[in-house]
Amino acid sequence: MERGGGGGEDDKFNKYALACALVASMVSIIFGYDTGVMSGAMLFIKEDLGITDTQQEVLAGILNLCALVGSLAAGRISDYIGRRYTISIASILFMLGAILMGYGPNYAVLMTGRCIAGIGVGFALMIAPVYSAEISSAKSRGLLTSLPELCIGIGILLGYILNYVFGKFLPLKLGWRLMLGVAAVPSLFLALGILAMPESPRWLVLRGHLPTAKRVLLQISNSEQEAENRFNDIKLAAGVDENNSLVDKRNQNGSKVWKDLLVHPSPPVRWMLMAAVGIHFFEHATGIEAVVLYSPRIFKKAGVTSKENLMLATIGIGVTKIVFLVIATFLLDRVGRRKLLLVSTGGMVCALAVLGLSLTMVDGSHEKSLLWALTLSIISTYVFVAFFNIGLGPVTWVYSSEIFPLRLRAQGHSIGVAVNRVMNATVSMSFISIYKAITIGGAFFMFSGISILAWLFFYFFLPETKGKLLEEMEMVFTRKSRRDVAAAVGTQQ
């Protein structure tokens, strides 16, 4: 458990740290909005610009391929210029992308805006959880680090709502352009507002700004003793000696990072990297993007016909996502990451199997509307979203941002985010082709099978990190055997 000299005082929740994490997480609302609004906007873009299904898949997935570039670049950039300025860059990229997409006279300009926004997504997904993790205490890290995922959910819901409003009340050519372009306004305010927040104390220590780091820690801690303890732990992890000098200057400029991550990683770092890559891979390989991005198509296949009802049904997905993300934020530091992951993934397996069955029945029916199968399809879709967002969704970002050592954290997390974006792009760009090849029910049976593999991976390879200092993670990942991991998890629980 985290050390602290203030007794009960140190157990209190620090409101200033919460405020910092909330502001940093606002960039995720913009990303979530872009994801949610595109699911409905594509219906109107297809009608207005006459694009094909293949062009829709590319439009949906190109954002994530560009985010791959953004996430890899952001890891190194954040080590050089700091976490705050990296969030600012993400906001500016979102703003430029939204302006181009809102202008959108043709498919080429729309794609260009989508690509620029995608690079911003990569920056945002990499940096928001890292910043939140680095300013939080061990007792509140789960909640604060899950805020970016909660904000993504809020953004997705806003996108679904504006899909409905703009699609219903505005003409076709203006409606979808306003859906995509309105995100430029909050992006501008966030780019400026984040500069009022303090820099990550862990980054400051790594760059040698020790007095500034100490001042920040006094702000985000509940007592001077707690701040002092955290300061000493961070200095030790960063390799700062008794004279407050960095022992290995290469830790400061990041020149050793890629070598220590990929070329000659220590056994704990190798395990951390495997865990981060695995959890990010399975987050999207289990099919959440197919549901979030193509929910109107899923409900249309199930029997919902009018555009208005399709938009309303997708709003239900957004509401479900928010409700269970809020629940998850309070459970992460109480129940733990591992338990939530296993319960979440198990529920997803069942929900996806039921969704696959109900959609298969609709496909095979000669009736125009099979009411029970339609109802079961909608319910199982909501249940899948609920289970995903109470565990796998938020835990992925919390876990990946907290397990790496300080000098490897930004770029280690960025590798996980890059894998995340590749899988997101793979699913979003291939889902239409997959369900045309094996039926839409078969596609969700496939996702159910992948979820079983995910459950097994989480069970055998992901130890519990609840309540551990960031500086203690290497000890958590030092156990030699899976049996030791299971025993360790049992004692922690």
UniProtKB/TrEMBL annotation:
CDD domains: MFS_PLT. Gene3D superfamilies: MFS general substrate transporter like domains. It holds the Pfam family Sugar_tr. One of its GO terms (molecular function) is glycosyltransferase activity. It is found in: Membrane. It is a multi-pass membrane protein. Residues 20-466 form the Major facilitator superfamily (MFS) profile domain. The chain crosses the membrane at residues 16-33, 58-78, 85-103, 109-131, 143-166, 178-197, 310-333, 340-359, 371-399, 438-462. InterPro entries: MFS_dom, MFS_sugar_transport-like, MFS_trans_sf, PLT1-6, STP/PLT_plant, Sugar/inositol_transpt, Sugar_transporter_CS. Keywords: Glycosyltransferase, Membrane, Sugar transport, Symport, Transferase, Transmembrane, Transmembrane helix, Transport. Belongs to the major facilitator superfamily. Sugar transporter (TC 2.A.1.1) family. NCBIfam families: SP. PANTHER family: POLYOL TRANSPORTER 3-RELATED, SOLUTE CARRIER FAMILY 2, FACILITATED GLUCOSE TRANSPORTER. This is Dolichyl-phosphate-mannose-protein mannosyltransferase. The lineage of its organism: Eukaryota, Viridiplantae, Streptophyta, Embryophyta, Tracheophyta. The gene is PMT6_1.
